[in-house]
Specification:
With 416 residues, this protein is of the alpha+beta class. Helices cover 33% and strands 24% of the residues. Helix 9 (245-259) packs across helix 10 (303-318) and helix 9 crosses helix 11 (392-407). The radius of gyration is 30 Å and the shape is globular.
């Protein structure tokens, strides 16, 4: 008896999903817990595994939008696998192969074209296989490239230099099919994924529905870097995770939110809802878009527990195991654009939250300390906030407190 493969429920508010990719082919034998396919909703990407051993029968192709609970495939009993392969053998007639038997003569007819391919049209000098392969990959005209090797031979270096000097790195446009406008060959049109659509909607909603303002400061990371360097080995040995800078900032934000509670609140109609807990969202970039898993009750957690929570979420994202519940309930967000090399940016609010902290890259800069110019590892930080609920004084105070805590992490332990 076959087992139906259905699109699982990922939350009450989610009605449909896109079957993004099948990991197996129709007719493949699968084992229990083998990954079968991945689905995308407007909030999460989830990997679905096999419930039992069997032979996979695919009913819905990748790329289709399907309702939650829809049947997209089946697992046939293993016994069916023994008979299934026999049909393709019977259906694959040997005659077409026999009719193709004379085909070996075709390569002989094409041989002149193959021998001419490795040769530069301009001077008839044969091209090395590596050069020929690179020219084919980049769709180049070998006659336009100046060779600097013996006898004018074209080297791989000549091709690379030609590519570097070419405008936009694309010296030769791809061939345009007959009847097709030239511009069409230079463009590609792909539908937005559900996650990307949702990101676009939420960003636009945030800009239109809030009075967003951003304030900036800079943090001297020297002490945090020193503590991390001193204790990273002992920390990793004891807790099984690395000590990163994210935990410094998350814990600093928790302490600052206690002092400026309106940044940890949100507007609901004509009311302001204050939270007496800190659920911190940590923005994580993925190939399919940005997701913000939430670390709950960070006010009760140690540095090690924060780092473990981040590592666990990264693993879930990588394995497509992130659930809708992992993304809900955040009261404040921390985003680290520094991992991508960003020096300064303005983060956009993650609604309905009233604040988001943007971290950036650490860069050595000259600063004045005790009337002396010294070189320090500095980081710009940005706080975007909803001005409807947060005043400028509160925003500046919050950012100043984060700066004080990160520059002197001992203050968080001493609660001063």
């Amino acid at each position: 008896m076959s087992i139906e493969i259905k699109i699982p429920s990922v939350g009450e508010s989610v009605r449909e999903a896109v079957l993004a990719e099948w990991f197996k082919q129709d007719g493949d034998t699968v084992r229990k817990d083998d990954p079968l396919f991945v689905i995308e909703t407007d909030k999460v990407t989830l990997e679905v595994v096999a419930e039992a051993d069997g032979v996979l029968k695919i009913l819905v192709a990748a790329g289709e939008t399907v309702a939650i609970g829809a049947v997209v495939g089946a697992l046939e009993p293993a016994g069916a696998a023994a008979t299934a392969p026999e049909k393709p053998k019977a259906e694959a007639p040997p005659k077409p192969e026999k009719t193709l038997a004379p085909e070996p003569a075709a390569p002989a007819a094409k041989a002149p074209a193959m021998t001419s391919a490795p040769v530069r049209p301009a001077d008839g000098i044969p091209l090395a296989p590596s050069v020929r392969r690179l020219i084919a990959e980049k769709n180049l005209d070998a006659s336009k490239i100046q060779g600097t090797g013996p006898g004018g031979r074209l080297s791989k270096g000549d091709v690379l230099i030609y590519l570097e000097k070419a405008p936009a790195g694309i010296p030769d446009a791809p061939a345009v099919p007959a009847g097709q406008p030239p511009s069409a060959a230079m463009e590609a049109r792909k539908p937005m994924t559900p996650i990307r659509k949702r990101i676009a909607e939420r960003l636009l909603e945030s800009k239109q529905s809030t009075a967003m303002l951003t304030t900036f400061n800079e943090i001297d990371m020297a002490r945090a870097m020193e503590i991390r360097s001193l204790y990273k080995d002992a920390f990793a040995k004891r807790h099984g995770v690395s000590l990163g800078f994210m935990s410094f900032f998350v814990k600093a934000c928790v302490e600052a939110l206690k002092e400026v509670p309106e940044i940890n609140a949100f507007i609901d109609g004509s009311d302001i809802v204050y939270h007496h807990y800190q659920h911190i969202g940590v923005a994580v970039g993925t190939p399919r878009g940005l997701v913000v898993p939430v670390i709950r009750h960070v006010e009760r957690m140690s540095f090690a527990q924060v780092e473990k929570a981040i590592v666990d979420y990264v693993a879930k994202i990588k394995d497509n195991r992130l659930e809708l519940a992992d993304l809900e309930g955040g009261t404040f967000t921390v985003s680290n654009g520094g991992v991508y090399g960003s020096l300064l940016s303005t983060p956009i609010l993650n609604m309905p939250q009233s604040g988001i902290l943007g971290m950036h890259k650490i860069e050595k800069r000259p600063v004045v300390i005790d009337d002396q110019i010294v070189i320090r590892p500095m980081m710009y930080v940005a706080l975007s906030y909803d001005h409807r609920i947060v005043d400028g004084k509160g925003a500046v105070t919050f950012l100043k407190r984060v700066k004080e805590f990160v520059e002197n992490p001992e203050r968080m332990a001493l609660e001063v």
